[in-house]
Design goal:
The chain is mainly α. The protein is built from 16 helices and four strands. The strands form two sheets. Strands 1-2 form a two-stranded antiparallel ribbon. A two-stranded antiparallel sheet has the order 3-4. Strand 3 and strand 4 form a beta hairpin. Helix 7 packs antiparallel against helix 13 and helix 10 packs across helix 11. The longest helix is centred in the C-terminal third of the chain and has 27 residues. It is globular and about 70 Å long. It starts with a helix and ends with a helix.
């Protein structure tokens, strides 16, 4: 910060060191510093504004318990994938393959349990290994071959997509077949009603995954390493952090979480289809960006991602209830992304 922007030289002190005193900041500058220090304020404000606007447009039915719980169910998959995406983006990377990894895991899980006749638990364990392996492949390519994350995950997106289309034969396993042969795979869709609201097991698992990753990022040394690598990988390396191992672990963990999202997806739709979850990839990035996580790494939170997913759900649900078609829903979400990135750029200038 220059002296003219926020401080002024007061003169030399008795011990020979120059001293500075803080000047008066404009209200806009104070707001900029506040948002830089607490980046989750913005998504909470946007969520509150969205709820207020749609309550006026749609009316009382928007706040009915069933509709609010429906929004929660609709964002469950986005939120789980968003948690995985947040880990990668915090390291200044991006994972365009999370949606493809999730669908590949659903196909593996379904075909091993239904077609191959393996125990359901073994099929789920195999899907976890597939997710972990896919994430590790991304991590190796980014970390040890020093390839750009965008290019790597764009390529693996196509590779994993081709694999699940080949393995599934582009065929869908119907929900009735899954219910008869492997009901455990649909367990995430099990619901409990409470006061008119409907809560699924998938929602509970989403909260558990988010809580576990939040704890890891905020209460463990590994979490601090993730932020440090994302903020400045070279500085992190010089301070003794194994940046390569941290990056590889982040990508592998992201793939593992995608496998959990695959189980949630089967519970949500009942069937196992290679065409399901097509927009999940973009939606996960949207939730992370709107939730205040910087695309340049080193700044963001899991709580912000959950709120970002809720913002996407509230806007899509509200626009649908208001009678607008899917075209305008995508238009609005696109605008939200642009505004979120622009705001992030403005907030980051506080440290320039």
């Amino acid at each position: 910060m220059t002296a003219s922007e926020g401080s002024s030289v007061a003169g030399a002190s008795g011990d020979g060191f120059a001293q500075f005193e803080e000047g008066r900041r404009s209200p806009l500058r104070r707001l900029q510093h506040l948002l830089h220090r607490y980046p989750t304020i913005v998504p909470f404000v946007v969520l509150a504004l969205g709820l207020a606007v749609f309550s006026l447009i749609v009316g009382a039915r928007f706040f009915q318990p069933f509709n609010l719980s429906l929004i929660l169910q609709q964002v469950t998959i986005i939120a789980v994938l968003g948690v995985a995406q947040t880990l990668v983006i915090l390291t200044a990377g991006i994972d365009l393959s999370v949606g493809a990894i999730m669908i590949l895991c659903t196909i593996v899980m379904g075909h091993l349990a239904v077609s191959a006749g393996l125990p359901q638990e073994a099929a789920f364990a195999a899907a976890l290994l597939v997710g972990l392996g896919c994430g590790a492949i991304n991590g190796v390519l980014v970390t040890y071959l020093r390839l750009p994350p965008f290019i790597v995950t764009l390529g693996t997106w196509s590779v994993f997509g081709a694999l699940f289309l080949y393995y599934s034969g582009s065929q869908t396993i119907r929900s009735q077949v899954v219910a008869a042969e492997a009901p455990l795979l649909q367990w995430m869709g099990a619901a409990t009603s409470l006061g008119g609201a409907r809560f699924t097991a998938g929602t509970l698992v989403m909260l558990l995954v988010a809580a576990a990753v939040w704890y890891m990022l905020n209460r463990t040394a590994f979490g601090r390493h993730v932020y440090a690598v994302g903020d400045d990988a070279e500085a992190a390396r010089l301070s003794g952090i194994d940046a390569k191992r941290t990056l590889l672990s982040v990508y592998a963990l992201s793939g593992l979480i995608c496998a959990i999202a695959a189980w949630v997806l089967i519970g949500r739709i009942g069937a196992i289809s290679p065409t399901s979850g097509g927009s999940a990839n973009l939606d996960s990035i949207t939730a992370v960006v709107i939730g205040g996580t910087s695309l340049f790494g080193g700044r963001g939170s899991i709580v912000g991602t959950l709120v970002g997913a809720l913002i996407v759900g509230v806007f899509r649900n509200g626009l649908a209830l208001a009678g607008l078609d899917a075209l305008w829903q995508e238009f609005t979400v696109g605008l939200l992304i642009i505004v979120a990135v622009g705001l992030d750029q403005w907030i980051r200038r506080v440290s320039a």
